[in-house]
Amino acid sequence: MKPQNKGMTIFAIGSIPLMMTLGNSMLIPILPQMKSSLELSQLQVSLTITVFSIAGAIAIPIVGYLSDRFSRKMIIVPSLILFGLGGLLAGLAAMMFSQSYIWVLIGRTIQGIGAAGTAPIAMALTGDLFKGAEQSRVLGIFEASNGLGKVVSPILGSLVALIAWYDVFFAFPGISLISALLVWIFIKEKSNRQSPPPFPKYVRGLLSVFKHEGRWIFTTYLAGGACLFTLFGILFYLSDVLETNYNIDGIMKGLILAIPLLVMVTTSYITGSKIGKNLEKMKMLSVFGFALMSISYGSLVFFENLIPFLAVLAISSVGAGLILPCINSIITGAVGKERRGFVTSLYGSVRFLGVALGPPIFTRLMTWTNTGMFLSIAAFTLIVGLLVLFLLHVKGKDGKVNKSTAFRYNYM
After folding, report:
1. Domain-embedded: residue 295
2. What is the CATH number of the domain that holds 375?
3. Per residue in 344-356, pLDDT tens?
4. Which residues span the domain enclosing 268?
5. What angle, rounded to 10 degrees, do the helices at 199-244 and 42-69 form?
6. In the 8-state DSSP scheme, what is residue 275?
7. Is residue 412 part of a domain?
8. What is the pTM of this model?
9. What confidence tens digit (pLDDT) does each residue in 219-272 have?
10. Residue 78 Ramachandran class (φ > 0 left, ψ -120 to 50 alpha, else beta)
């Protein structure tokens, strides 16, 4: 692959998680206006986020298999288009009809199904196209792009909503079309990839994989999900505190929420460029990352002023930025190409669920006490870090990711 072509390939892959994150998180600033305009309850307006995540989590394993059966590009491009069409449907319904809520939910469901075939499959595609240290570097860019979308989406959503709240939906077709064109033009898959067997044999092989390798797969899935669960939960808490305690709203609120995300983005990029293909380094960085998260969350009980609170919270973002690129590399590098799409897609489902569960669980914790909430999540991240330390043993003598034979051609 020529250097200029490689650069555009990485750019095309990086556009996928960026577009998906923008597409979902841009809605956050418009929810109060949507609630007022459509005369919705708090539960109804929250469903516009929930149906997206549930539809995506259900569809992800299916499109994962299809990407193994056919090709990554054949799944990603139509999925991006479907994502855009769902946004177009929701926007037109909200603009033209007063009783448009059900159509907005249908549009969001379509978007969730489309999103299922994008970022998780792009992670598998990265594993197909890049190897060794370069694969880890590109996966670090992938995670940084995901985080960058989270940084800018509340700000962009607030700016677009200055025209009309439903105009945010019309941004989705445009951003998804750009990403689809980049993938279509610049992604060149290898023609000699081996397709998986028919579905029944494929499932039996996967069951064998999880039977023999379930311990470390469960641990890595839990680690990735825990990062996103705590990240989105604490941001949900911070969003509420900024409004109720500091009367900060709008674009300024989006800028403050972007601070811990920006720290995570920067750390993710640096981590991906430095870890190479050494599993022992990935494992130790992940354990250290969870230690930082536990220390950060546990220390938040001592800080109420905003600036010190944000400074301590940023330590947890450093931890998440250390963990996520390592987990991405471990999962992608240790899975054979013929089943990589399914395994990375299932990991995507766990990430989706982590994002979906964070706000409602933190809502419950917030009714308790701040001390109880922070100490609970500190204990949770500590436990996950210990599981990574003691249960993650997938390496060769040289400390590099070792492909298990169970992941290869065990179809029978």
Report:
1. yes
2. 1.20.1250.20
3. 777 877 887 887 7
4. 3-407
5. 150
6. -
7. no
8. 0.77
9. 999 999 999 899 878 887 887 788 778 888 767 877 888 888 889 989 988 998
10. alpha
